[in-house]
Amino acid sequence: MPQCLRAVRRIAAWSHFKPPRRLHYTGAMRPALPSPLSPGVTVEILRARCATCSMHQLCLPMGLDLADMDKLDRIIGHRRKVERGATLFRIGDPFVNLYAIRLGHFKTYQLRADGHEQITGFQMGGELLGMDAISTERHQCDARALEDSDVCEIPFNRLQQLLGEMPTLLRHFHRMMGQEISREQSVMLLLGNMQAYQRFAAFLVNLSSRYAARGYAADAFQLRMSREDIGNYLGLTIESISRLLSRFKQDGLLTVSRREVELLAPDRLRAIAAGTEPYR
Q: What is the pTM (predicted TM-score) of this model?
């Protein structure tokens, strides 16, 4: 059973979660958030807050009012920079935090029996990393930055308390879990039933829709992952990915220059991915 499906059982009880008695802090004990009007507040501090993050309508704060967003801000422990090629967490690491991607791209992967990577997903700004560990309390994959990236560390035990207090946040977290389950099911369908050209078309269409949701151009974007990584994820060789790029280019579906891709016929690509347009 996929990890996210097992995690749902643990999450299902949160709607009835009774938060523990609030602790009363005094003075310096209280974790303080700077007021936007306080002297000495820098632009960097303001930008680090959920309300001013460009990804907040896709991430956990979606649908929250300012008061609830402030509560979420208070539990976020650390905004962390992750350099390209660095690992955010490894398989077997204890589960402590979820990670909200503010900027950048990641890949998640496991090691096969032969010691080679098997890529399980590509993540971008506004998405959460670490949900694989909710059910087992240990991470089930490695997460590596594909470029210099920023993440927000969200302590999961404190998030659980907020989920019990804030129904809007709980509903959105359920929605994000549902999206992750749907993604896992889509990957199984992708690898199990689709032809190579359908897999690649579906991959490009998926990237396009995710960039559009973030306010970026839907039809022109840079592939942050290598062709080898794309092939690994789709169950194809790097040579197959190169041939498909050349074939799609010849057929007027896209243009490509190194990692820069422009989709010239996105509707046709969607039809090819869905199997409603013959393509040989």
A: 0.78
